[in-house]
Design goal:
This protein is of the alpha+beta class. It has helices at about 5-15, 40-50, 60-75, 155-164, and strands at about 25, 30-40, 55, 80-85, 95, 100-105, 125, 135, 145-150. The chain binds calcium ion (3 copies).
Length: about 160
């Protein structure tokens, strides 16, 4: 449903239902932007912030599965893995979501990961394109990325609703 149609819907029913910006995919409580370009973790994080969002925080198995579904549906657009918001740059082995500094609770590590691969500090969190498991890898690696913003903070629709 386009935003303008949605506004009419809101007016008729009084139900507030939010939508995602163009080019973003709607999840349960979030909008996701799947970045096809290849960026370091810091670059990717900066791009998400420019879009008033953060690198994705995968909160549970349901969200991990949803992203698998979204990405699998955009076939052929990707050659490698995706950055998430997780990092253990501050304290080795203590994984946090960088945007909130909250300890990562739900995890979906690939077998044997995180391994902070010997000789190279692996301090940033990636989502495998092949099986949607998680891996720690060096932050300067070039990856695709996923930005997430909450539906409830969607400014555009908030303004439209406010004008009524
Ligand atoms: Ca999330
Ligand atoms: Ca590490
Ligand atoms: Ca690793």
């Amino acid at each position: 449903m386009a935003c303008q149609q949605l506004l009419i819907f809101i007016c008729l029913t009084g139900t507030v239902q939010l939508c995602c910006p163009d080019g973003w995919r709607k999840g349960k409580n979030s909008c996701y932007y799947i970045g096809t370009s290849l960026k370091t973790w810091v670059e990717a994080s900066g791009i998400c912030q420019a879009f008033h969002s953060e690198l994705v925080v995968i909160n549970d198995a349901e969200e991990n599965f949803l992203l698998k579904k979204i990405i699998t549906n955009i076939k052929g657009a990707f050659s490698t893995n995706f950055w998430m918001d997780g990092s253990d740059q501050i304290t080795e082995g203590l994984w946090v979501w960088a945007s909130t500094m909250e300890t990562i609770r739900y995890t979906n590590w690939e077998q044997g990961e995180p391994n902070n691969y010997i000789g190279i500090a692996e301090d940033c969190l990636e989502l495998y394109l092949s099986n949607f498991k998680w891996n720690d890898i060096r932050c300067t690696h070039a990856n695709h990325f996923i930005c997430e913003k909450e539906l409830t903070t969607q400014d555009q629709v908030g303004e439209l609703v406010g004008k009524r």
